[in-house]
Amino acid sequence: DIQMTQSPSSLSASVGDRVTITCRASQSITRYLNWYQQKPGKAPKLLIYGASTLQSGVPSRFSGSGSGTDFTLTISSLQPEDFATYYCQETYSSSLFGGGTKVEIK
Amino acid sequence: EVQLVESGGGLVQPGGSLRLSCAASGFTFNNYDMNWVRQAPGKGLEWLSYISSGGSIVYYADSVKGRFTISRDNAKNSLYLQMNTLRAEDTAVYYCARHFKFGSGSYSPYCFDYWGQGTLITVSS
């Protein structure tokens, strides 16, 4: 079975910082990788699909890259509304989610 | 506007049963596959089950296989999750999510593009 490992599990950052979150698959998943944002008490929201395609309406400060086993989600300039938990999801073999990365205010 | 609204959550005793519903609107429901995803308190997301647009193909996570049954009624624009033999570890918020396919080829990659607000299931005596 494929395992998905996100790192870090949490991070503290300031408004305006560049933030990078990593998701690593235990085997190649080509580009079948999606990213979601979840705020407390809310449903997850799709940010990026197919490793790098920005979902409609998502700000361009979010970007995704990677293929094979290593993927990154980058927020180019962190905004107050970006403090949330981020999840990756592989769709190569099932719909497994990573453990999440909580982005907190420094 | 796409809307997914779950209902049917609540408190249930271990070993009990519950049926969740997800009412869909704002899109042609019978054109889309659907999923159920859950989130235990303070934990991450766990995919549970998938159903094809016509209802003929279903998949389950190992954690719920044999206990949960996914179904849909396209005439009512509704998705369901019948949950039996519930355990304390099934306590979670349950979400329905629309399955969006992109790309082409024999295997179409996908994502979950719309989610409901979730309904809480608490399994406790």
Distance between the termini of chain A: 36 Å
Shape of chain B: globular
Report the oligomer: heterodimer
Order of helices and strands of chain A: EEEEEEEEEE
Helix content range of chain B: under 10%
What is the CA-atom radius of gyration of chain B, in angstroms? 14 Å
Largest sheet of chain B: 7 strands, mixed
Query: How many beta-strand runs of chain A?
Result: 10
Radius of gyration of chain A: 13 Å
Number of helices of chain A: 0
Into which percentage range does the β-strand content of chain A fall? over 45%
Helix/strand/pairing class of chain A, anyone?
mainly beta
Mean pLDDT of chain A: 97
What does the main sheet of chain A amount to? 6 strands, mixed
Shape of chain A: globular
Largest interface: A-B, 24 and 22 residues
Share of β-strand residues of chain B: over 45%
Task: Report the count of strand segments of chain B.
Answer: 11
- N- and C-termini, Cα separation of chain B: 40 Å
Low-confidence stretches of chain B: none
Overall SS class of chain B = mainly beta
What does this structure look like?
The complex is a heterodimer of chains A (106) and B (125). Chain A is an all-beta fold and 106 residues long. Chain A is 0% helix and 48% strand. Chain A has no helices and ten strands. Chain A has a six-stranded mixed beta sheet, with no helix packed on it. A four-stranded antiparallel beta sheet of chain A has the order 1-3-8-7, with no helix packed on it. In chain A, a hairpin with a 3-residue loop joins strand 5 and strand 6. Chain A is globular and about 35 Å long. Chain B has 125 residues and is mainly β. Chain B has no helices and eleven strands. In chain B, the strands form two sheets. In chain B, strands 2, 4, 5, 6, 9, 10 and 11 form a seven-stranded mixed beta sheet that branches. In chain B, a hairpin with a 5-residue loop joins strand 4 and strand 5. The radius of gyration of chain B is 14 Å and the shape is globular. The mean pLDDT of chain B is 97. Chains A and B meet through strand 4 and strand 5 of A and strand 5 and strand 10 of B.
